[in-house]
Specification:
Blueprint: H1 2-11, H2 17-43, H3 47-70, H4 87-103, H5 105-124, H6 130-147, E1 154-159, E2 168-173
Antiparallel strand pairs: 1-2
C-alpha cells in the first residue's frame, strides 16, 4: 500500500523522479566523501588525519549552518529561507580538500569531481542557487586548507642516546 501511495505521488508530478534521484545521490556522495577520507586515513594508520578530516568537516558544515541561520536567502523551490550557503556542498568540499592537501592530487582529483557532482545535484534539485553552492564549496575548501597538514610518510627523530651510544637517530616510513 505504501509503495502504491509513493508511486501515485511521483506519477502525479509532485516530485520529478530524475531530480529526486540526483538529489538523493548528491546527498549520499556528500556524506561518503568525508567518511571515505576518514577511512583512507584509518587504513594508513593516520590518526592525525582522521582528526583533521573530522574537525575540518564539522567546522565547514557548522559555519555554513551558522551563516544559513543569519542570512535568510530563499531557496529556488521556494520551500524555505535557508538557501545560503549550501551545507551539503561545504561538507563535500571539506572532505575533498582534505584528501587533496593531505594525500595529494591522486586522491583529491576524484574527490573534487564527486564534490562538484554534489554541488550540481543541489542546483539541479532546486535546493540551492549557484552562488549558494560556490559559497559552500569555498567554506569547505577554506576550513580544510586551514586545518589540514600534508601527510609525511618519513619521520626522522634524533635521540640523545641510543643503545649505549652517545647519539642516535631513527628513520620511520609509513605506508
Amino acid at each position: 500500500m505504501r509503495a502504491a501511495c509513493v508511486g501515485a505521488f511521483l506519477a502525479a508530478g509532485a516530485v520529478p523522479a530524475a531530480a529526486d534521484g540526483i538529489e538523493t545521490a548528491g546527498r549520499a556522495v556528500a556524506v561518503a566523501i568525508p567518511v571515505t577520507a576518514a577511512g583512507i586515513a584509518l587504513f594508513k594508520d593516520d590518526y592525525d588525519g582522521i582528526l583533521q578530516d573530522s574537525v575540518s568537516t564539522i567546522a565547514a558544515v557548522g559555519t555554513a549552518f551558522a551563516l544559513k541561520s543569519v542570512i535568510h536567502e530563499q531557496r529556488p523551490d521556494h520551500s524555505d529561507y535557508h538557501s545560503f550557503p549550501s551545507e551539503t556542498t561545504a561538507g563535500a568540499f571539506a572532505g575533498a580538500a582534505f584528501l587533496q592537501k593531505r594525500y595529494g592530487w591522486s586522491y583529491g582529483l576524484p574527490a573534487y569531481a564527486l564534490a562538484a557532482f554534489v554541488g550540481y545535484s543541489r542546483i539541479e534539485s532546486k535546493r540551492h542557487h549557484w552562488y549558494d553552492v560556490a559559497a559552500g564549496a569555498a567554506i569547505g575548501w577554506g576550513w580544510s586548507y586551514l586545518l589540514t597538514d600534508r601527510y609525511n610518510r618519513v619521520a626522522i627523530s634524533a635521540y640523545p642516546g641510543y643503545a649505549g651510544r652517545p647519539l642516535g637517530f631513527d628513520i620511520e616510513m609509513r605506508w
